[in-house]
Automatic annotation (TrEMBL), chains A, B:
SUPFAM superfamilies: PLP-dependent transferases. The lineage of its organism: Eukaryota, Fungi, Dikarya, Basidiomycota, Agaricomycotina. PANTHER family: ALANINE AMINOTRANSFERASE (PTHR11751), ALANINE TRANSAMINASE (PTHR11751:SF29). This is Aminotransferase class I/classII large domain-containing protein. InterPro entries: ALAT1/2-like, Aminotransferase_I/II_large, PyrdxlP-dep_Trfase, PyrdxlP-dep_Trfase_major, PyrdxlP-dep_Trfase_small. Its cofactor is pyridoxal 5'-phosphate. Keywords: Aminotransferase, Pyridoxal phosphate, Transferase. It comes from Candolleomyces aberdarensis.
């Protein structure tokens, strides 16, 4: 009997890298278990997972809704769910509809009506739905898109998904038709893209975002990347744009977006628009969000577009429900039918996620019983996130050898750190990338888990890390980062 | 601008077939929309989806819990959720914990305690969990396996999944290391296997189950298939066993299972045990379920085993929550680490599904407030399903040209239909497989949607279909099948 070894497995999977949940995250999880088991030998008393945009994470205690409470009641330690979101209430009622009568006056009227309406369309949340998602919810998504963009959307071209990741992964699997197929991805990028390309034996075609211009996307740089790919006999199939950016938080102007659409026309590229952070805007008056759907419609382009959205981000951050959708535009019916066939093998997305999508695209409206509270809380969340992002980037910029673009969107900062030769040598001696070495030291000393820039991609010789702006007590948090960094500089010297 | 065409996409995906949600299911869905829109021209007033084991489906009105009510109150039209399962109550409380105080005396004490315990481990069901699943729930799964089998289970080797399908798909993706890699699959099989093999460019190595022996698995037939594969230069990597069978409902004896384990040793095969129907047993005294984990441990084998389970089947049938797990046994740590890396790219399985797994592996115990009702209802569900399966197979066997093994397990029957030459000719003239032609006619005339045998695989020149035993009013339902079949024989003659 031969044992099952790594060598006998699909070699493509060995190439997959996903730093967001890689070595650092695994080490952080081990620290968490150590602390839970009563170990008092660590130099911190809790682990802060700043590696992933997980707003409702336990221990963060600044989940979106709580933001509101924190603003008015500093140092509150109440668990978030004492003040439930409309979605939580709807979800509870779809679990057990009779609760509306068993607990009268507990649920707002609009919530009861919404749950009743959803259940009449869904039947039971314990049943499989249509593989593409509940038709009623897809219609609501289409209305949301129409109201956002001012152009029609077709519910039959919308697919509800298990988070945005599942949709991205499927589209990449479809587009990679041979080992020479490539997909243009921004650098730095969210590592789902490189991971999925590796899994499906496709070639990443990297194009670089310009940090000196607040991480702007440049058409010239994309064309340069296309040229390089062409010389390497790689056939570009699609262009990925992440807007607002992850990890950069940057927002594209309509002008750049129009140029990108024309570029996709010129090179026959499918446009994959990752727009999951579309409602995380910190300075919307100067940095608004515009969807690619709107631009493609506006310039009457025939560019095939797939745009992704998720309930895991925004101000609710309902990650654990696993919900999202993608919209196909200018995609032919046979291709849509193929997508349908592929999603049907997975049966259907989770109903909890589908209901989450419905709540995201149909928030309470003025006049609804839930509206005032919802409005107040979401506004407070937006304000708090914007102010934290600004405070954090200001203070990071005050550190020696650190420069940080103040993200206008998303949930992250991506500071650049210059590292001394001594630090780089020490890292190499430990067999680590220098930024990984920095992030490991940060974790060991402070319990703060970030993701090293090498997981997202960066220019040769540059070092960064990504941290979320979802942090408990910004002063204490940034204080720890500052103290660690000053200690590091003391130890290894300035670059 | 070239439009995006099918030819430019991954050719592997074009080969994917998934009949359970294919042509027939799409047509059935269209009929359902027609009926909803008030169309009265159809010869039926509702569509009955017998194509998929979806116990809680709307319109079936015999979802598991309701079975109990139907037994005592025939023709009840109350919706199921008036009598919530403990899982629904727990899920409602994890959505909004304060409900326990806001609606006192509404929730059983054990349910309140369970929800509190789960939340203290999970934090928020809106947050990402550990990619492998909440550690506490994995520990409970391990205890369940230990109690079931009498052998230890390791929570670190258990992965919670988005239904069993997601796990099967990942394992197949991992095992197919080149286009000559093959996986042994039973014929007939659940088409997830052929679909996933096609998607990942692997070769199915079919071995036939013996209908004349109640769909028994024969070691000789598997060895014959291995021999054929060897001659075709296909490298067998794994053996899939579905026990209880889908679509056959058959159950393996411990003797056969032991032989299978030895066969896997002999040929260095990974054993993939699909055991999602393990609690759907209609005649447990003569046809009990034994897990492969137990046999592998009992004979102290080193065969690498991955066994799959799901919350979508059993007596609760919580399909829409998308929950399941797989256990790795005799799988080396580097391979487990690779699996972890792959699941981490998808972030985590839905929390609603994870909570569903917890309820499945920890049902109420004697002495708990929920126990008596749970016991009564699940027993009634088991009894009703067993009696329906028997009644349906008896009556199908009474039809000319139909023979049907009375399944001892799972949710299906897989009757064989002999078709006359006239019927076969008519089918070919319509460009259809004869069993698909039969199933389409059945749908058009009665609104009953089944899956043609060709979707599962069958011997050359044989025809079958799969139907679920989850049907509203067995008399009316089988009556429709009988009337249709007699009309068919009248039209096309006996074989």
């Amino acid at each position: 009997m031969r044992p099952l070894t790594i060598d006998s497995l699909n070699p493509a999977l060995l190439k997959v890298e996903y730093a967001v949940r890689g070595e650092l995250a695994i080490k952080a999880e081990n620290y968490r278990v150590q602390l839970q088991d009563g170990d008092r030998s660590l130099p911190f008393d809790r682990v802060i997972s700043s590696n992933i945009g997980n707003p409702q994470q336990k221990g963060l205690d600044q989940a979106p809704i709580t933001f509101a409470r924190q603003v008015s009641t500093p140092h509150s330690t109440q668990p978030r769910r004492d003040s439930p979101s409309a979605l939580s209430q709807i979800a509870a009622l779809t679990e057990w509809p009779a609760l509306a009568e068993l607990a009268p006056d507990v649920f707002p009227k609009d919530v009861v009506a919404r749950a009743k309406e959803l259940l009449s369309e869904i039947g039971s949340i314990g049943a499989y739905s249509h593989s593409q998602g509940v038709p009623f919810i897809r219609k609501n998504v289409a209305k949301f898109i129409e109201e956002r963009d001012g152009y029609p959307a077709d519910p039959n071209h919308i697919f509800l998904t298990t988070g945005a990741s599942a949709g991205v992964s499927l589209l990449i699997n479809m587009l990679i038709s041979s080992p020479t197929s490539g997909i243009l991805i921004p650098i730095p990028q969210y590592p789902l893209y490189t991971a999925t390309l590796a899994q499906h034996n496709g070639q990443p075609i990297p194009y670089y975002l310009d940090e000196s211009k607040d991480w702007a996307t440049s058409i010239a740089d994309i064309e340069q990347a296309l040229d390089k790919a062409h010389k390497a006999n790689i056939v570009p199939k699609a262009l990925v744009i992440i807007n607002p950016g992850n990890p950069t938080g940057s927002l594209l102007s309509e002008e750049t977006m129009t140029q990108i659409v024309h570029l996709c026309e010129k090179y026959s590229l499918v446009l994959l628009a990752d727009e999951v952070y579309q409602s995380n805007l910190h300075r919307p008056s100067t940095h608004p969000f515009t969807s690619f759907k709107k631009i493609v419609c506006k310039v009457q382009s025939h560019v095939p577009l797939v745009s992704f959205h998720s309930i895991s981000k925004g101000v609710t951050g309902e990650c654990g429900r696993r919900g999202g959708y993608f919209e196909c535009h200018n995609i032919s019916e046979p291709v849509v039918a193929l997508i349908y066939k592929m999603v049907s093998v997975g049966l259907c997305p989770p109903l909890a996620g589908q209901i989450g999508v419905d709540s995201m695209v149909r928030p309470p409206r003025a006049g609804d019983e839930s509206y005032e509270l919802w409005k107040k809380e979401t506004q407070a969340t937006h304000d708090a996130l914007a102010s934290r992002t600004q405070t954090m980037s200001d203070r990071l910029n005050g550190l020696p050898g650190v420069s940080c673009v103040a993200s206008p969107g998303a949930l992250y900062l991506f500071p650049r750190i210059t590292l001394s030769q001594a630090a780089i040598t020490a890292a190499r001696q430990h067999g680590k990338e220098p930024d990984v070495f920095y992030a490991l030291a940060l974790l060991d000393e402070t319990g703060i888990c970030v993701v090293a820039g090498s997981g997202f991609g960066q220019k040769e010789g540059e070092w960064h890390y990504r941290l979320t702006c979802l942090c408990p007590g910004v002063d204490e948090y940034v204080g720890k980062l500052e103290k660690f960094h000053r200690g590091w500089v003391e130890k290894y010297g300035e670059a």
